[in-house]
Request: fold
Amino acid sequence: MAETHSTQNHDYHLVDPSPWPLVASIGAFIMAVGAVGYFHWLKAEKVVIGGLVDVAATGPWILILGLAVVLFTFYAWWSDVIKEANTGHHTRVVAIHLRYGMIMFIMSEVMFFVAWFWAFFAFALYPHELKQPLRSDFIGNVWPPVGIETLDPWHLPLLNTLILLLSGTTITWAHHALLHNDRDGLKKGLLATIVLGLSFTCFQAYEYSDATFHFAGHIYGSTFFMATGFHGFHVIVGTIFLIVCLLRANAGAFTPKQHFGFEAAAWYWHFVDVVWLFLFSAIYIWGSAGGPH
Reply:
């Protein structure tokens, strides 16, 4: 009679059955349906037929419900991952795979920004494209387009560049402090990075309010706000990421040998820094050369 052994003889973690993939799918579907309905509601009047309100006129509540489900799934799923790490399931092999996953995620984000850079350079390098005469007529055969007053790169954009470069040093300080088991340095470095991230967001919001051009109406505003706006969104996400790391650090999480959550946040923040350097060089400096500030 063969004996059954429950001892794990491999370095891989077989995940227990989890409801979160299904819940996340349902939440994403509800959010998508709510977003489509809300977009239609923005353009349509509220229509009442036979005492029933048209679905398109229900407002953003379906979208908010789906977003709430997705955010709750984030919290619950990542909490389970943290519990797995604390119970010793994150072996060296599992940790390597987690790092591979984060690297692939960052690479997908890189390609996301490549699309916006591509759109910007396609118009900036070829403002008089012969195959597309409407483009040349629309932007006046020059870049920046006629009538666009660009932002001076040597004021707020330069300040934001210095802020993000400084934040890259503070998050590195926090990482090195963690590796040397300096809990106080870890917390101070995280707090400094969070403050710098919030400062960047505030300055960018002020910059947007001071811009003389808008998103709609011309290609310069569309490419500018899509590229810099999505970067600003990533800064907000990264700041939230770091706030969670600070809360976990205050609760006693992270050790010099096990701190993938913090390491992933640091990688993400460095990615945000590098993207901004490309944005500052390409869009703010090179892209505004020759145009009025």
